[in-house]
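Our preliminary data section would be incomplete without showing what the modeling component actually yields. Below, a chain of 117 amino acids is followed by its predicted structure, encoded as tokens that our downstream tools consume directly.
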Amino acid sequence: MLNDRLAVAKEVASQLLPAETDLENAIVYASRLTIAVVEGRRKARLPITIGQEALGHVAAATAQLVQARGQLGRAHVALRAAKDEIGLRTFAMGDLWDCPPSTSAENVTPIGGANAA
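Predicted structure:
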């Protein structure tokens, strides 16, 4: 039974860091897209209203990616707690970096301030 738990924990750990990395890469690419839209408009000497709707959509998508990053960080903390709950306190999850600090949901301010949903 402990071997089954250990195998599951290893599988979850092997998927967690790539998910975190891929999400951060998506944020980087979305940010670069934002820059490309703004700089492209300037280079082409187009009116500032050109591409505004698209830029708004890219910015909204980027904000959602940032929120997802925070959720994934909280999931990382919860998985660390679950590991302890199933009796794998001494099992190293294989993180390359320190786990995010444990925080309660009440202490985390969402993007856009306290009134953001």
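The chain has one domain: 2-103. The two ends are 41 Å apart (CA to CA). Preliminary results of this kind motivate Aim 1 of the renewal.
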